[in-house]
Amino acid sequence: PSSHNSGDPGIFRRVNDDGCFILLINKTDPFSYPFHTTKVMRILLVDDDQLIRFVHQMFIERAGHEVVGVAEEETQAVRMALELKPDVVIMDIRLEDGTNGISAMQTIQETLNIPAIYISGNSDNKTMDEAGKTNMKAFLVKPVTQDEIAKAIV
User: 128 and 139 in contact (C-beta within 8 Å)?
Assistant: First the structure.
């Protein structure tokens, strides 16, 4: 087992041999109070907004998961997914280069069966129907909370 501070001064994470972690929130004694236990998920985060990427990465890491890559446009997202093979992709729908995250996930899923968690300000029926044609784990509407992201991941 290994243990390390997650970057948040009051949160420590201990990873067991089976890949599960225990998120600990007691700053003075990190081995005294288990808060949550689950498998650590490796996540590719895709969003064109730098501030949103920062906040969502913080949410993901506070939930005890690992952000293995961050992308802001479709080509980069596809390349990183194929190289890194994350457990889940958290994908914005509208990306900076004018492309769309659903198209990126379709390309990724032609090779790898990685589920997507879509996070978008677009919740119209057409967008949700298109997203539903991919291996979609969840569709969250911005703004999202830490709890919504954490629940969607597991």
Answer: yes
> Do residues 82 and 111 touch, judged by C-beta distance below 8 A?
yes
- Residues facing residue 100 across a β-bridge: 94
Digit-coded pLDDT (tens) for 67-123: 999 999 999 999 999 999 999 999 999 998 788 999 999 999 999 999 999 999 888
Which residue has tokens 């064109």? 48
Rounded (5°) CA angle 108-89-1: 120
Mean pLDDT of the chain: 83
* Residue closest to 16 by CA, chosen among 58, 78, 64: 64
> Quick one: pLDDT at residue 154?
87
CA dihedral 138, 143, 145, 149 (to 10 degrees): 20
Q: Is the dihedral of CA 70, 108, 136, 99 positive or negative?
A: positive
Instruction: Burial-class residue 99 by CB neighbours within 10 Å (0-12, 13-18, 19+).
Output: middle
pTM of the full predicted structure? 0.76
Between CA 150 and CA 40 the distance in angstroms is 11
Residue 136: strand, helix, or coil: strand
